[in-house]
Amino acid sequence: MNDEKFMNAVKQLQIGEITEKEIYLKISKGIKDEKNRKILLKIADEEQKHHDIWKEYTNVNVKPSKVKVVYYTVISKILGYTFAIKKMEKRKNLYALDEELNERLLKEIPKSVEVLGDEAIHEQELISIIDEERLQYVGSIVLGLNDALVEFTGSLAGYTYAMQNNKLISLVGLITGISATLSMASSEYLSSRSEGDEKPLRSAAYTGVAYLVTVIILVLPYLLLPDDKYSLALGIMLVLVISIIAAFNYYIAVAKDLSFKKRFGEMAGISLSVALLSFIIGLVVKRFLGVDI
Hints:
By secondary structure, the protein is an all-alpha fold. The protein has helices spanning 3-29, 34-58, 66-79, 81-95, 99-108, 112-128, 133-136, 138-163, 166-194, 200-224, 230-256, 260-289. The mean pLDDT is 80.
């Protein structure tokens, strides 16, 4: 690595630190929980110290990346600050894997030992103790989402060739979905209350909302397409199932440091297997009963 390339790399590290400081400060302003806000402010102070170490070597003033600050701030509003922070740290860690750069940093900038040590240990420890409310209810969200994907995907697949009419499938699907939502939410309320949960209504709400949103998304192809395009609606519905599973498991994998591939494969396999079985049952029942709708 030549001197110009090395100097540019150090400058990028300097920009990265000041950018992350601004991101932590921006996110902290929207956090009501005092403990979590203090954690983020402490990390922001660490980022400033790291920036100052790189500045001693570059002797230049740099500005934070406005695009990244806005990007991660928006993500924190939509998907939660834990997800935004963990995603940002993962991207930074990918850059830190450059062995040649790390070796030269340690050789030419002795204080980089402090920076690399903080990045590898201290900040991760601080981030790991952030206690965001929405992640406390991941179990309730998983329950609603998983049941909706497995049960409702199977139901719609079974209805598709049993009824062969998108309007009828939508009608029955919505009635089934709304009834199942109320049933799931009430079951989660009773279960949470029996387990001593101080906020059983909140657990029930997370489960119910997750179930209902999934139901609406999966019924949409049947609502929007012509009545005779039930095969196309089924195909789009299955694509939506895979997309929801992928998006949700990516979120959980980042926010809770879990394996994406394992969770995605398991959930997708179960949902699609149930859909296939229900589809076959729908065909068999239709032929056995001789019903022609």
